[in-house]
Amino acid sequence: MKRLVAFIIAGVLLIGFLLPACSSAPATPSDSMKIQVATDATWRPFEYIDDQKQIVGMDIDIMNAIAAKENLVIDWVDVRWDALLAGMAQSQYDAAISSITITEERKQSILFSEPYFAAGQLVVVRKDNTTIKSKNDLTGPVGVQLGTTGDIEVQKIAAAKSVPYQDINLAFLDLMNGQVNAVVCDNPVALLYVGQNDDKLKSVGTVFTSEFYGIAISKNKAGLESRINAGIAAVKKDGIIDNIAKKWLEE
Fold first, then answer.
1. Assessment of whether the complete model's pTM goes beyond 0.85
2. Looking at residue 11, what is its pLDDT?
3. How many CB atoms lie within 10 A of CB 243?
4. pLDDT above 90 for 57
5. What is the average per-residue pLDDT within 23-41?
6. β-bridge partners, 96
7. Angle formed at CA 12 by CA 9 and CA 15, multiple of 5 degrees
8. Sign of the CA dihedral 52, 42, 11, 87?
9. Average pLDDT over residues 3-26
10. 3-state SS string over 18-47?
11. Domains (range + CATH), the chain
């Protein structure tokens, strides 16, 4: 878990250098704005459903902190990943936070905030695997979450076959059961699963992509982009993102 915390804090600190060190002006009750925020709650520790059937996670805490700074009232909605991206492209939701990598392709149809987190893809295999040492060794079925950067990257590897799952947890279960040869996903998620199953799983190689997470924002919600960006700057300046990362990654 120490390795996981090192990865995550490095990501948070990197984003700290990218964002301006300024804080938003204090919100007033008249500034209150109600927004519907979508997330795909299958991506622990960023967003998932807990034992009380509540949506929780690092992204959820970050978005709530931004909302507190900018007087935004959030109505959370749990949406599958592919429907989330499609919904944001059609402005069905006001915003979405769900470990969404900012890409040029997605920016064609989705408005993004400033980045709030840095991550990358990592390969996880069974503990007894001695043949896969990095992404270059991937062959056969490889578990990914449908439509994610991991899915896209595995599809580029000729010898590998991308096996998409709606829930990344199912991909890791199939890995431990021998149904897939590896899982590729964002490094914080990968290392969390390895930490929780270190007798069965291990990560191999190094992080092989450089990605930045952003909050997706509806083009039809006037003024929301500036408020979310101001909120990101404020929680960064106050050290709130660092504290949230430690809470979720040291538990």
1. no
2. 55
3. 13
4. yes
5. 74
6. 38, 216
7. 150
8. negative
9. 47
10. HCCCCCCCCCCHHHCEEEEEEECCEECCCE
11. 2-118+213-249 (3.40.190.10), 121-204 (3.40.190.10)
Distance, in Å, from the CA atom of 156 to the CA atom of 144, rounded to the nearest integer, reads 13
How far apart (Å, rounded) are the C-alpha atoms in residues 137 and 228?
41
The predicted structure's pLDDT at residue 250: 65
Amino acid found at 91: S
| pLDDT at residue 84 tops 70 | yes
Residue pair 175/126 in contact (Cβ under 8 Å)? The answer is: yes
CB 153 within 8 A of CB 184: yes
